[in-house]
DNA sequence: ACTATATTACTGACCAGTCAGTTACTAAAC
DNA sequence: GTTTAGTAACTGACTGGTCAGTAATATAGT
């Protein structure tokens, strides 16, 4: 007879479960939205049954919060560190940060979070608030610091930094959101790489101080234009 | 005795119902999303009962399609006309079209459609496809024509128009989406007016041909820089 | 044998779409 | 002008299905 090992139906894996559940949850939330994702499905993808989810998380919302905390917050901390260090021109720093965020959000499922939150904010204000406090307000602050520094050093023309922060992030956020929503409708998706470099090019051209071009730090800015 | 008219519980209003239902539907879809909006609620807001909805529309999806067709498609046709006419510089035309779209989407509930579609695209591919074909592909085509014209006339530097179209629309779409989602989390929303003008300023600076500024059509573009 | 970990079966609430029945209106007959 | 029969517009209870969260039960590990 050839069933030498009677396969046990499940294992106790107290340590591994939460991380596996969080990983499954973030994937599915991003794919189908918070409301439309069934807890049973998350459990299945993590290789357990629905009841098990409730051994580790008190509710669907709790699971979501864990996903955000583990998926995004560490990246933010990393960028904050980069800005502290402050080497080279602001333009270069901005470019690096944007490209870096670009690759992270392209490679990992956390890139789907912006879409998820936009989609569910109205119906789950608690989640929206959480994400806003934990992620958005922090990232906003971070870019505003960078823009102010650029203006102070004469690299950038003067502008309203609170508004410009939103504007310059928009192309990146929008593309990320697109990739997780309507992109399935188009025949030939655009090259992400190319998109990012074109967007950065546009933004840096649009931000820089008026005097011809220079690109180096010792061009002193003159009076500003009004278009 | 003073109840001269016995109030009837309802009236027959065959002509008015569809429009009222569509209006209620678009409002609620935008507010709460397609899936989360109950048909009963749409009916209530339109002053009828749930069954009545099915006298005029075959399904929830059908109601949605009617909303898109009545709310957006006419605006697109108008813009297409504007581009045909083609008066003045491309930059001015672009500015006008963007500002005009800006005001429409700020004032009417159709401004909520981008958010709605982004949110539901994955779960309702049929709706996404419909919106893509009916609205997105048409609007894309329209802006690409404009950008190509700008490059051909030497007003804009050369770039990949398919990509740039997405990039320059992003700030406007993103803000519109924001207003219908996470904006409820922030204490002081930004001035829409100011946002739009700053975005346009950034974009036109970022697009224009390299030689000093000119703004007129007879500056011949020279070799392009690489930043 | 004991208990922590996991499963399965269940509960209560929700909702799109249906349909049998009710009401507003119309017009023919008187 | 009033009754009556007919029909189109509308209602709301019901069906069949879904799903978050809970409770009862089983099994792996010690």
Offer a few descriptive terms:
227 residues; mainly alpha; 64% helix; 0% strand; disordered N terminus; disordered C terminus; DNA-binding
Structure in words:
- The structure is a homodimer of 227-residue chains.
- Chain A is an all-alpha fold and 227 residues long.
- Chain A is built from 10 helices and no strands.
- In chain A, helix 4 (60-71) packs parallel to helix 8.
- The longest helix of chain A has 28 residues, at 125-152.
- The first copy, chain A, is elongated, with a radius of gyration of 22 Å.
- The model of chain A is unreliable at 1-5 and 212-227 (pLDDT under 50).
- The interface between A and B is large, with 59 and 58 residues.
- Count of beta strands of chain A: 0
Oligomer: homodimer
Net shape of chain A: elongated
Give the distance, in angstroms, between the N- and C-terminal Cα atoms of chain A.
86 Å
Radius of gyration of chain A: 22 Å
| Helix fraction bin of chain A | 55-70%
- Major β-sheet of chain A, in short? none
* Unreliable parts of chain A: 1-5, 212-227
Largest interface pair: A-B, 59 and 58 residues
Strand content of chain A: under 5%
Number of helices of chain A: 10
SSE blueprint and pairings:
The structure is a homodimer of 227-residue chains.
Chain A: H1 16-32, H2 39-45, H3 50-56, H4 60-71, H5 73-85, H6 90-107, H7 113-120, H8 125-152, H9 161-179, H10 192-207
Helix pairs in contact in A: 1-2, 1-4, 2-3, 4-8, 5-8, 6-8, 6-10, 7-9, 8-9, 9-10
The structure holds a DNA duplex (30 and 30 nucleotides).
């Amino acid at each position: 007879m050839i069933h030498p090992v009677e396969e046990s139906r499940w294992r106790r894996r107290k340590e591994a479960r939460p991380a596996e559940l969080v990983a499954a949850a973030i994937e599915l939330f991003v794919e189908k939205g918070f409301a439309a994702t069934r807890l049973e499905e998350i459990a299945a993808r993590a290789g357990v049954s629905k009841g098990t989810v409730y051994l580790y998380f008190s509710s669907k919302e709790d699971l979501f919060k864990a996903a955000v905390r583990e998926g995004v917050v560490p990246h933010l901390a990393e960028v904050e560190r980069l800005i502290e260090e402050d080497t080279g021109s602001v333009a270069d720093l901005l470019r690096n940060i944007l490209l870096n965020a670009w690759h992270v959000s392209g490679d990992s499922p956390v890139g789907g979070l912006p879409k998820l939150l936009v989609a569910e904010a109205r119906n789950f204000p608690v989640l929206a608030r959480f994400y806003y406090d934990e992620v958005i307000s922090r990232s906003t602050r971070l870019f505003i610091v960078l823009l102010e520094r650029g203006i102070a050093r004469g690299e950038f023309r003067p502008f309203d930094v609170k508004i410009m922060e939103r504007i310059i992030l928009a192309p990146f956020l929008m593309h990320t959101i697109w990739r997780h929503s309507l992109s399935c409708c188009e025949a030939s998706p655009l090259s992400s790489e190319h998109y990012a470099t074109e967007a950065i090019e546009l933004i840096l051209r649009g931000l820089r101080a008026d005097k011809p071009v220079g690109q180096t730090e010792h061009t002193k800015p003159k009076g500003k234009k009004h278009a």
